[in-house]
């Protein structure tokens, strides 16, 4: 087993490959490592540049098309065999020279994850920094993960920690939250170098804002209701159904007393609330069945054991 696996996702980063590979070799010269480049369907000569590295420690994983950063990261993590797994951007903005210090920290202090903080971030203020600060604040408040810079790709994990999760959709932004759900409690941060992009163009823009928000809602649901979805949908359904029933009982009494209730907005509201309540409860039941299928079909456990040993004082 290698000491360290470095996972680098790239998409049309042709001019960055050679300088990045040279920096990795220099920074990790005293570490037994493998560097896994995951090419996410590049349309330039990125793959050819990776092959030109001509070093057995560097591995190229070619995806058949562009799947997005989360899927590319998962492909690299699946290939990683190191005792520790580090994630780093392929655009030269992360500095490979920070990796040895992070590796030493996670080894000597027993962390599950050491993440980078872009202390002097070299990005645009209004298109990158301000939206990032707002997103970080909202994610911290919603998930309870008190990290200063959740958007920094540079992170290092124990192999067990990162292999305990699977990254779907665009949930790479929420890796700290995902590993926390799987029982990783020892996570920390450290300031790292952040450099301006020299070659190529950024793949990020404000269009991802709505995706970040929708993924945040999903993460909040995972954190609170992953193993008990009926408590979420059922509570909403019971309240909605109850209000609808009360409205309909009230209207029924009015009808018995001789009042004309047909066409009243309150009647339509009562009917909609009853139907909506039934749908929420039904959704909760279906989600419960799917949750049990998820755990039992894969023989997953709804818990993770930290340690088992004799009950004796050492």
- Overall pLDDT score: 87
- What about the largest sheet? 7 strands, mixed
Shape category: elongated
How far is the N terminus from the C terminus? 31 Å
Number of H- or I-type helical stretches: 10
Using only C-alpha atoms, the radius of gyration works out to: 25 Å
| Regions with little confidence, pLDDT below 50 for 5+ residues | none
Which strand-content bin applies to the residues?
Answer: 5-15%
How many strand segments? Answer: 7
Q: Classify the secondary structure makeup into a structural class.
A: alpha/beta
Q: Could you give the order of the helices and strands? A: EHEHEHEHEHEHHEHHH
Q: Roughly how much helix do the residues carry, as a percent range?
A: 40-55%
Strand order of the largest sheet: 3-2-1-4-6-5-7
Characterise this structure.
The chain is α/β, with parallel strands linked by helices. It has helices at residues 14-27, 46-51, 69-79, 99-109, 125-143, 159-163, 175-181, 209-225, 229-256, 265-297; strands spanning 4-10, 33-39, 58-62, 84-89, 113-118, 155-158, 187-192. It has a 7-stranded mixed sheet with strand order 3-2-1-4-6-5-7, with helices on both faces. Helix 2 (46-51) links the parallel strand 2 and strand 3 (58-62). The radius of gyration is 25 Å and the shape is elongated. The mean pLDDT is 87.
Quick tags:
10 helices; alpha/beta; 314 residues; seven-stranded mixed sheet
């Amino acid at each position: 087993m290698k000491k360290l696996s470095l996972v680098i996702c790239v998409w049309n980063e042709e001019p960055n490959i050679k300088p990045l590979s040279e920096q990795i070799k220099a920074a990790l010269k005293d570490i037994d490592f493998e560097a896994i480049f995951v090419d996410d369907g590049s349309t330039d000569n990125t793959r050819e540049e990776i092959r030109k590295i001509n070093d057995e420690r560097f591995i190229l994983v070619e995806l058949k098309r562009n799947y997005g950063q989360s899927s590319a990261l998962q492909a690299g993590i699946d290939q990683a065999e190191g005792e520790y797994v580090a994630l780093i951007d392929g655009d030269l903005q992360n500095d490979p020279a920070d990796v040895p210090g992070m590796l030493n920290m996670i080894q000597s202090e027993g962390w599950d994850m050491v993440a980078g903080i872009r202390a002097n971030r070299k990005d645009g203020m209004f298109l990158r920094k301000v939206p990032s600060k707002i997103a970080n604040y909202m994610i911290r408040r919603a998930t309870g993960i008190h990290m200063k810079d959740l958007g920094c790709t540079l992170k290092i994990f124990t192999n067990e920690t990162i292999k305990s999760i699977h990254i779907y959709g665009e949930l790479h932004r929420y890796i700290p939250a995902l590993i926390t759900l799987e029982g990783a409690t020892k996570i920390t941060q450290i300031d790292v170098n952040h450099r301006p992009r020299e070659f190529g163009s950024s793949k990020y823009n404000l269009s991802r804002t709505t995706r970040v928000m929708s993924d945040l809602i999903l993460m909040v649901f995972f954190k609170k209701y992953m193993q008990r979805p009926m408590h979420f949908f059922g509570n909403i359904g019971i309240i909605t159904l109850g209000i609808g029933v009360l409205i309909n009982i009230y209207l029924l009494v009015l009808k018995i007393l001789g009042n004309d209730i047909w066409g009243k907005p309150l009647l339509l509201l009562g009917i909609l609330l009853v139907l909506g309540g039934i749908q929420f409860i039904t959704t909760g039941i279906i989600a419960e069945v799917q949750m049990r299928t998820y755990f039992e079909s894969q023989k997953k456990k709804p818990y993770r054991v930290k340690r088992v040993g004799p009950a004796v004082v050492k």
